Amino acid sequence: MKAIRLYAEPPSWSMSRRTAVQATAAFATAQVAGCAAPGSPTGPANSPAREEPRAQVMVPLQMRVNGQTHDMVVDARTSVLDALRENLNLKGTKKGCDHGQCGACTVLIEGRRTNVCLTLAVMHDGLSITTIEGLSSGEQLHPMQAAFLKHDGFQCGYCTPG
Ligand code: FES
Questions:
Q1: Given a cut of 60, is residue 12 above it in pLDDT?
Q2: 97: Cβ below 6 Å to ligand 1?
Q3: Closest residue by Cα to residue 118 from 110, 130, 109
Q4: Residue 118 alpha carbon, nearest atom of ligand 1
Q5: For 2, what's the count of Cα atoms within 13 Å in the CB-facing half-sphere?
Q6: In ligand 1, which atom is closest to the CA atom of 117?
Q7: Is the CB of 101 within 6 Å of ligand 1?
Q8: By C-alpha distance, which of 100, 107, 103, 106 is closest to 128?
Q9: Does residue 103 line the site of ligand 1, with CB under 6 A?
Q10: pTM recorded for the entire structure
Q11: 60 falls in which pLDDT band (50, 70, 90)?
């Protein structure tokens, strides 16, 4: 009876230490230079999408902002901050650092304080959002709004964080 071999033979490790060091150095140099060896998994021949701009993906969503429901179509990469400011023209929510560090973009999402410059709008489809504009009840200012007026708060993010 003939034996069936289930596994391939292990590779032959005949590479010298000098060759291995040279190959590693060449690969590292190519990575640092931004061009891996042609034909390698990270080489230019195998990553044509790297040079091309990404396609814009538009996503329909619904946001309930300050008690009003808004249907909109946004780029999937749109932050809640940009959706509020650019799509809904609610400029009370400020863009300070745009990196989650200053708090100028703070709103309440389902009652929880959130820095919305770091939050994608598509992640909050259908959720309730309260901005600074939505804190007042009728003509009566919310204590937060009154404090901004009284103390001339800039809400730049660093001197008057959210
Ligand atoms: Fe969002 Fe600064 S703009 S934390």
A1: no
A2: yes
A3: 109
A4: 1
A5: 3
A6: 1
A7: yes
A8: 107
A9: yes
A10: 0.64
A11: very high
Give per-residue pLDDT as tens, 127-159.
999 999 999 888 899 998 888 888 877 666 666
Higher pLDDT, 8 or 15: 15
Q: Is the CB of 74 under 6 A from ligand 1?
A: no
Confidence at residue 6, expressed as pLDDT on a 0 to 100 scale: 46
DSSP character string of 94-153: --SSSSSSS-TTEEEETTEEEEGGGSBGGGGTT-EEE-GGGS-BTTBPPHHHHHHHHTT-
Question: Using a 6 Å cutoff on CB, does residue 157 contact ligand 1?
Answer: yes
- The per-residue pLDDT for range 152-162, each reduced to its tens digit, is 776 666 666 55
Question: What would you report as the CA-atom Rg of the chain, rounded to the nearest whole angstrom?
Answer: 27
* Cα(136)–Cα(146) distance, integer angstroms: 10
Tell me which of 82, 85, 98 to substitute to probe ligand 1's pocket, judged by most ligand atoms within 8 Å of the beta carbon: 98
Task: Report phi then psi at 74, rounded to 5.
Answer: -130, 160
pLDDT at residue 10, rounded to an integer: 45
